[in-house]
Amino acid sequence: MTLPAFAGGDLVTLPTAPQSLRDRALADDVRFILAVFVDLNGKPCAKLVPISAADELEAGELGFAGFAAGLIGQHPHDSDLIAVPDLDSYAPIPFVREGLAIVHCDPYVDGEPWPYAPRVILKRALARLAERGLSAKVGAEVEYFLVDRDESGRLSAADAKDEGLRSCYDARGVTRMYDHLAAVSDAMNALGWGNYANDHEDAPGQFEQNFAYDEALVTADRVITLRYLIGMLAEQRGMTATFMPKPFSDRAGNGLHFHLSLWDGGTPVFPDASDGRGLGLSDVAYSFVGMLDHAPGLQLFLAPSVNSYKRRGATTSASGATWSPKHATYGGNDRTHFIRVPDGNRIELRAADGSANPYLALAAVVHAGLDGIEQGSDPGDPCGPGEFRESSAVLPRTLLHAVQSLRDDAVLREAIGAGRGVGEYFADAKEDEFLGWHNTVTEWELDRYLTAY
Length: 453
What we know:
CATH topology of the largest domain: Creatine Kinase, Chain A, domain 2
Strand content: 15-25%
Radius of gyration: 22 Å
Shape: globular
């Protein structure tokens, strides 16, 4: 079936869609298809494919020079990376450009799924989950700033009147950005995602727009699509949307919180009303929370940029909180923990930020949680509000510390790489990223050292 569309606020049920990519596009008056995959950094890579070449795209004849695309495990001499579209992810996006559609693709090389492709990595993790008769459903909270940048490079909130120290949920800030927020909301609803809230977040210029949870792969695709939509719709109004974890030193940063539950067919496996610890979780859920044993290594996938650790390392923000955990803890309905348990149906992972690649982040979380299940892990009793135990791991302080934490976590590193060295490749690339930043002289250094000696 085609997705529901909205016209003038009324739900319009569209006819049954043809099965081929070309026929779907023709039925939707689509002229071009954006064939998308992401590299390990989460960069969306695409070719704009005219409908006349839709059959070739569907047949797996669209090639990319993988090395040129980005961090995806290829060298200049390697065979083409072939983008094979997942037709279930196809969607018209006329709100970006009239006649445009998007489809997410799985990269293949020499006829095999490419092990360094993030979407392939997540599908492999979900297949491992399926071997136990389980599936994962995920909701995502995507935070972002709307900013302007002047000729000197200085950033400011795109809304010049958005200056409050406690801006969260500010009705006036939401109203002033009504046109942008409404456009994003309408787009999500036209795609059938079920947008249910749009709010001003903690910092001036910061927003979050929520959509209903779904299967893990579907939600990961939607996070990538939503970032693209938000960015394009912001540009239409002369603004820049950024998901950078910490664009302002004195303000809270951008998180990417995941709400995750496991299912056995149509039955959720997390809830257990008889839970003696009071969170309403089953033994399986507590074992899955045992992923905390891998929390330091997980951080390289949940917070994979130099800038991530300026968000994590902040002691406070102008509003009085950073909303970023510093210890590998879990607790009830308490946003200071690595894992929050709002109710017995789900857990919320609060350690990811706006630079996280959703495919990689969710794959790593699934592997870490599965290891907890397989080991019969017991995370112990939940911590109270703002508490942590002496035994709770301290999360890495910099990207370089996170690199070392993954290198020290053989279980997680091997699970991500499936014996193909993906974990090592990612760790090496992130070490290079850290050193590239570390070897750059900054204004902070000039201010501190230029005449200090």
